[in-house]
Every structure is written in C-alpha cells, then in structure tokens.
Amino acid sequence: MLEVYFESDKEVISFCEHLFRSHKQIELNWKTDDKWGNHLQFKEHVATKELMDAITDTMANVFMTHRLRTMVNRIIQEHYYYTNNEEIERIHDLTYWIITGEDEESKRLRENKNHHAFLKSLFTESLKESFVIHFDSIVNFRLKPFKDKLIYFVGLAIDEFRREEDHQAFVDMLRAYVEKKEPGLPVIHILQGSDFAFFKQNGKQMTNIELRVLMKQEPLYIVGLHDNEFNLAPLIAMAPEKLKIYGDDPAEPKTLTVINVFQEKVDFEPISNFPFPYYFNK
User: Fold this and answer.
1) Contact between residue 150 and residue 72 where contact means Cβ atoms under 8 Å apart
2) CA-closest candidate to residue 64, choices 8, 106, 120, 105
3) Which helix (H) or strand (E) holds 100?
4) Average predicted confidence (pLDDT) for the chain
5) Which of 17, 121, 125, 184 could staple 238 via S-S, CB 3.0–4.6 A?
6) Higher pLDDT, 58 or 24
7) Confidence class of residue 126 from pLDDT cuts 50, 70 and 90?
8) Residues 157, 96: contact at Cβ < 8 Å?
C-alpha cells in the first residue's frame, strides 16, 4: 500500500486538490502524524502505473507551485550573490518565464525541453524505490539534477536581466536627448513592418535618401545610433512633435522602443486608421 507524507498543510491540500481534479476515482485516507505531518494512504493495494503517474505528476505540480520560488531565489542569492529585492524578483520572473513560457524565445532558451516532465521523472525514480514516500525528503535530497538545471537557467535569466538594464539605460539616454532637441516636423505617420515606413503630414512617403540626409545632419553617434539604421535613428534626427504609428502589434520590439522614447508624443492606432490608403494601391 502506497503511503505519502507531507510536512506542509498547504502542500498536502494542493496535492489532493490537483490529484482529484484529474483523477476523481483515486481513493485515499488522510490523517496527521506527530512526527511526519500529513499522512496519505492510498487504498489501492497494488501501485498501478496509472496511479504512480498521477502521483508523480501531482508532486511535480506541487513543487512548481510551492517550492520553485524559494529554490530559485536561494540560487539567485547564494550562487549569484544578488541582494537587492527588486533585482531578485525580476530575475526570478525571468527564470520562471524561461522554464514555463510558451513563446518561441523562452522555448529556445530552454532548448524546447519540458522541465515539468524532467521534474516528474525524478519523483518517479523515488517512487520506484519505496512505497513510503516523504515529499520533503525528495525535495531536499533527490532533486539535485533539477537544481543544477535551475542554476543554469538563473544564469540565463541574469543575462536577460542585464540586457534589459542596458536597453533601459539606452532608452533613458535617448529620451533625455530628444527632450533637449528643438521640435522638428509637426507629425510623422509610421507604418509597422520589418522596417518602418515614414510619411509626412501630406501623405508623401519619405525615401531612404531623404532619411539619410536628415540623419547625416544629426550627430547620432553621440547616442550610439548609426546612419544606416532606418527605424529609430530617423525619428531621433527628426524629433517630430507627434508620432502616429499604425499596425497590429504595439508590443513589437522596435515599436515599443519608440513608444518608450517618445512617450506621450506617440499614438498607436490600428492599421485600418492609416490616413493614406492610396499607398497600399501602389
């Protein structure tokens, strides 16, 4: 008969709730033990593969819910020596994104590995050795392979965090530079795309030659931009009083950078609001 012990009341409640949500047919007895805390005894006399799979999957879920944050934060502080609470929180969030994110970038960083499945496999190995399982003992002594992976992912998260800091410093510098410049054109209309398309107030699209002339007149090297960059650099050179961006994705990276630099000067609108529709018919 399979027996499982949890010291934490929150964790045993989480375990039972998750288990019964997906496997309502499982029966167990729950009582408290003076030495080991919460004692779960499963009524099946033979530990079936289905039961073992359900229990290990649920244990992995309990760990991710209740223990992952503590383990990650300890790694950030003890392995990488961070002490600032805001920095620790941001690195934790980036680590969690790398491990669990569904976007292409997070999957690339974790090499498309399913780390819930890896964690589950470590619990499975422990269940194969004994029908009496102590969740806390497994977490403390049997999860080193998972912790080693976490150390690596925290390192990746720190790299991302530093890139974010560098980018924010770059944006802050550009914002200060633009604020000191004399305003240029009253309004520039911008179409999203692999590269921005720029339009004057009269609907005329600005050519790359026009943009290059504008950029040559501005010491862009002071703010780390080059005159062969045709998205952000032309806007820094033009310093328009108003920017209207038309597209489908306000979170697109170069669009987001423009919004962060020019702030209240920027309006983002759906592409259907683009005021020069004849451009599309060319």
Assistant:
1) yes
2) 120
3) helix 85-100
4) 91
5) 184
6) 58
7) confident
8) no
